[in-house]
Amino acid sequence: MPTNFSGTWDIISNDNFESYMVALGIDFATRKIANMLKPQKVIEQDGDSFTIKTFTSFKNYTVSFKIGEEFDEVTRAMDNRKVKTVVNWENDKLVCVQKGEKKNRGWTHWIEGDKLHLEITCEDKVCKQVYKRSA
């Protein structure tokens, strides 16, 4: 039985986000705003079907997918690019690959204790975020 990611998660750390956004080509002003945000994630999981909602005071973003099924995504939360996205299980981790204009792009989610870990990658930059389950 795969890990259950369902829940509400509040960010507690966000390492190397600036470099990740530079790799995406995000402008200076937007990076400054984004660095101050404290995102909250709401994950709804039904077997291998997921909806991940990310809420901030600046932008909200929702993505829905089924494990193993490629879909077209527009990364509105970040750089507004069109990518081909597929998410798969790798043991208890959700691993996403986004194919498009930027190389080596995607993310990995996993849970340790009451913390949700997220590594987001673009080219040679990796941002590490940690979220704590909301009470």
TrEMBL record:
This is Cytosolic fatty-acid binding proteins domain-containing protein. Keywords: Transport. Belongs to the calycin superfamily. Fatty-acid binding protein (FABP) family. InterPro entries: Calycin (IPR012674), Fatty_acid-bd (IPR000463), ILBP (IPR031259), Lipocln_cytosolic_FA-bd_dom (IPR000566). It comes from Esox lucius (Northern pike). One of its GO terms (molecular function) is lipid binding. It comes from the Eukaryota. SUPFAM superfamilies: Lipocalins. Residues 7-24 form the Cytosolic fatty-acid binding proteins domain.
